[in-house]
């Protein structure tokens, strides 16, 4: 089968769609268009720096370009460098796989106080995203709101001793920031009971291996047959380190308290209202489209996939299943139009980074890795572009 498909977003969902399309129809022209100069999205800037096993899925995605014939067009923003309408006019199918980069707000009084940081914004700063904010001062008593894997990732990284980051790809600035941290305690609070928390039990078990913490789990009696609550209950009392971690459940935030800067969060629970003092608040309650994001509605020849389509639900393997189902639907719908110009519509765009350019960036980062680190990510866009073009 012939035809032309453009995928907007070269993160896991986009790469999985390309992989499935080309496996079923190797003669398709498949192009992945990415706003950043580098591919792999969430794998590079969202998966925790100390989870290198998960990040290894990028090697599978590399084969999409190296063996299956997909092309990478990095540093191209749809809506700025080329319109969505132009893409739809040039390709038989256009897939929106742009993910979600906006942090969902608490939606309670005081959620605009200084000292509140979304998990997405903070992880981008930790993982050297080119558009990241500066790493903030979290103070001595950060409070994490959320009971999913993103919340646990933040908790684990903030609780780790610098030596426990060996083998990660955490950069110099973030490593120094964590090393200089004055955090004495970390609280992690969720509105659901422990049995309904969305933590992966494997990630909870990781916390028991930390050497500098003391962990308390409140109101998490094991629910027979529920692995998450069993693992949480077993975690209670772990460790004798100086940094305290406390899990709380069944508490719903109703207000953030403070005079210009957050000082506490008021929660509603089964026993009434409770104020938990904190020096900062980290929200890990989901993601939403960033301002100016692409439209999420589908139309003939226009598809959406992954978090961009479903919302912030599901792990990378779950997004793979979603992508495979979409690829089948695209192939069933596809009616190639030989008059469509395909990737020729991208010719002449300034500053495009192709796959070879990404490989130059990748090689430079691997070569610059500090001792004990997997790579040294380049954060500056101009530097990425200079390396990609050999200039």
Give the arrangement of secondary structure elements.
Elements: E1 4-8, H1 12-24, E2 29-34, H2 41-45, H3 52-55, H4 57-66, E3 71-74, H5 84-90, E4 93-96, E5 102-103, E6 116-118, H6 119-126, E7 142-145, H7 149-159, H8 172-179, E8 185-189, H9 201-207, E9 213-217, H10 227-235, E10 243-248, E11 252-258, E12 262-269, E13 272-277, E14 280-283, E15 287-288, E16 302-304, H11 307-310, H12 316-333, H13 355-367, H14 381-388
Parallel strand pairs: 1-2, 1-4, 2-3, 4-16, 6-14, 7-8, 7-14, 8-10, 9-10
Antiparallel strand pairs: 5-15, 11-12, 12-13
Helix pairs in contact: 1-12, 7-9, 9-10, 13-14
Provide the descriptors you would attach to this structure in a database record.
alpha/beta; Rossmann fold; 391 residues; FAD/NAD(P)-binding domain; five-stranded parallel β-sheet; 2 domains; six-stranded parallel β-sheet; single chain; globular
Structure notes:
The protein has helices spanning 12-24, 41-45, 52-55, 57-66, 84-90, 119-126, 149-159, 172-179, 201-207, 227-235, 307-310, 316-333, 355-367, 381-388; strands at residues 4-8, 29-34, 71-74, 93-96, 102-103, 116-118, 142-145, 185-189, 213-217, 243-248, 252-258, 262-269, 272-277, 280-283, 287-288, 302-304. With 391 residues, the protein is an alpha/beta fold. The protein folds into two domains: 4-101 and 289-388, NAD(P)-binding Rossmann-like Domain (Rossmann fold), CATH 3.40.50.720; 105-286, FAD/NAD(P)-binding domain (3-Layer(bba) Sandwich). The protein has a six-stranded parallel beta sheet. A five-stranded parallel beta sheet has the order 3-2-1-4-16, sandwiched between helices. It has a three-stranded antiparallel beta sheet with strand order 11-12-13, with no helix packed on it.
